[in-house]
């Protein structure tokens, strides 16, 4: 095994298959100790097992887990789970039913890491917007409220690392959309690394900075989210809803039309207005199926977004010879487009060609 590196989360796990289970895990990860890293993959790919090893709930003699060179698991021994400076948020809130919401939070504070303070009680309350439910017992809380209390409780342990195991999986779509803004606020506020397990690409795009893709207990891809999603030849580029992430600053809003404008790489893109404000830094998701390519601007088109770009790469689809995937660069920002092979031929698409990417504002997902 490689030696861990300063200021990194090192996770090396070798869990061979047994007579009781055919599942094996073999990963060697060196992850940033800041921001949000998503562990992404289908059910059974090993995401939760990795979190359990990091938390000390699973033990393997052939594993090494350390954060900033503080070793929690090695061949020499293992730090018990309760002594690891970790906050863990499960799919279910797992709150103590006999305690009020505030009682759950106060319990967490009793086992907080007294050597550091990443966030204060009142700040957690405001961040998760739970002041109005502190006196209620878990049985009287909605699923979203329970999860917000669970997240607050994990933060008040003052952890050096926050593990989140599909915290939205048990919620319906409406509750997911309700709680996502709170998760976004947490990810922006937290000055500790967060490992976020999910099989939802929407959640990963919205929350994560870095991602690790797992399949059958092995890492297949990893990298910065915007970089990984903007490549051809990856599992993501072959998705039906292959997407890229564009980050920028909101520079303009017109409530009359229900639109906001995001500036990135000296260009702007209009999208359906939400809760964002001027000067907010946000991410937009653009699906390749919603991008068309032209060689000149059409000022009489209903499409508002005309992005100057250069063809960087093209890729045929072996399963669908009628389709071509195209990687465009708008400055340094990649955009993926899916066009017919006939269109690619007629436009003579090739590397270095200057084009216009047309994107419907109604198709841009904030």
Automatic annotation (TrEMBL):
GO molecular function, one term: ATP binding
InterPro entries assigned to the protein according to its UniProt record, in alphabetical order: AAA+_ATPase (IPR003593), ABC_transporter-like_ATP-bd (IPR003439), ABC_transporter-like_CS (IPR017871), Mo/tungstate-bd_C_term_dom (IPR008995), ModC_ABC_ATP-bd (IPR011868), Molybdenum_import_ModC (IPR050334), Mop_domain (IPR004606), P-loop_NTPase (IPR027417)
UniProt-listed NCBIfam families: modC_ABC
Protein known as: Molybdenum import ATP-binding protein ModC
Record carries keyword Translocase: yes
Keyword vocabulary terms for this entry: ATP-binding, Cell inner membrane, Cell membrane, Membrane, Molybdenum, Nucleotide-binding, Translocase, Transport
Domain Mop intervals: 300-366
Domain ABC transporter: 3-241
């Amino acid at each position: 095994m490689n030696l861990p590196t300063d200021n990194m989360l090192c996770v090396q796990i070798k869990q061979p298959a047994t007579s009781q289970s055919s599942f094996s895990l073999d990963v060697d990860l060196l992850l940033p100790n800041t921001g949000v890293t998503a562990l992404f993959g289908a059910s059974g790919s090993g995401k939760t097992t990795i979190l359990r090893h990091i938390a000390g709930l699973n033990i393997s003699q052939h594993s090494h887990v350390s954060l900033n060179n503080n070793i929690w698991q090695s061949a020499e021994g293992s730090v018990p789970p309760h002594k690891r400076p970790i906050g863990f948020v499960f799919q279910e809130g797992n709150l103590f039913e006999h305690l009020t919401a505030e009682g759950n939070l106060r319990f967490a504070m009793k086992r907080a890491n007294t050597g550091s303070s990443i966030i204060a009680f009142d700040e957690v309350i405001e961040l998760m917007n739970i002041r109005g439910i502190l006196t209620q017992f878990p049985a009287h809380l909605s699923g979203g409220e329970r999860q917000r209390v669970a997240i607050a409780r994990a933060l008040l342990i003052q952890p050096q690392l926050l593990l989140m195991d599909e915290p939205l999986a048990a919620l319906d779509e409406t509750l997911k959309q309700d709680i996502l803004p709170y998760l976004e606020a947490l990810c922006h506020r937290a000055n500790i690394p967060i490992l976020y397990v999910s099989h939802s690409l929407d959640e990963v795009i919205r929350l994560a900075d870095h991602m690790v893709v797992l399949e059958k207990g092995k890492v297949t891809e990893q990298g910065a989210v915007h970089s990984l999603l903007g490549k051809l030849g990856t599992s993501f580029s072959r998705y039906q809803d292959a997407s890229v992430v564009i980050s920028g600053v909101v520079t303009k809003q017109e409530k009359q039309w229900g639109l906001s404008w995001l500036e990135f790489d000296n260009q702007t893109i209009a999208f359906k207005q939400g809760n964002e404000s001027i000067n907010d830094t946000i991410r937009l998701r653009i699906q390749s199926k919603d991008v068309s390519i032209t060689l000149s601007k059409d000022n009489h088109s209903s499409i508002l977004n005309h992005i100057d770009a250069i063809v960087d790469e093209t890729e045929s689809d072996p399963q669908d010879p009628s389709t071509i995937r195209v990687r465009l660069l708008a400055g340094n920002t990649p955009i993926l487009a899916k066009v017919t092979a006939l269109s690619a031929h007629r436009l003579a698409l090739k590397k270095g060609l200057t084009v216009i990417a047309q994107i419907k504002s109604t198709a841009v997902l904030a």
